[in-house]
């Protein structure tokens, strides 16, 4: 069975604040803006308030490698 990452799990995996990841994901889902990956799975209506989203761990790792290099923040850390 394939497992997907939630926003909370992405925040924990990357060391970024939950609110930052939630904001990046929300902008991508609602407006298609930014380089954050689109969810790999959606339960419910895409963009809907009650939808649940999941991201592929490899896509997140690839995205974060570039994000951490190009937009360094005090809390950023590279995935080991």
Unreliable stretches covering 5 or more consecutive residues: none
User: Strand sequence of the main sheet, in spatial order?
Assistant: 1-2
How far apart the termini lie comes to 25 Å
Bin the strand percentage: 5-15%
Quickly give the structural class.
mainly alpha
Shape: globular
Number of beta-strand segments? 2
Radius of gyration: 12 Å
The largest β sheet comes out as: 2 strands, antiparallel
Helix segment tally: 3
The portion of residues assigned to helices is 40-55%
Mean pLDDT: 88
Give the H and E element order.
HHEEH
Describe this structure in words.
With 80 residues, the protein is mainly α. α1 (7-14) crosses α2. The chain is 45% helix and 8% strand. It has a two-stranded antiparallel sheet. It has helices spanning 7-14, 18-31, 57-70, and strands at 41-43, 52-54. The mean pLDDT is 88. The chain has 3 helices and 2 strands; from the N terminus they run ααββα. The longest helix is centred in the first third of the chain and has 14 residues, at 18-31.
Compact overview of the structure:
The protein has 80 residues and is mainly alpha-helical.
Keywords:
two-stranded antiparallel ribbon; single chain; mainly alpha
Helix-strand blueprint:
Blueprint (H helix, E strand, L loop, with lengths): L6 H8 L3 H14 L9 E3 L8 E3 L2 H14 L10
Antiparallel strand pairs: 1-2
Helix pairs in contact: 1-2
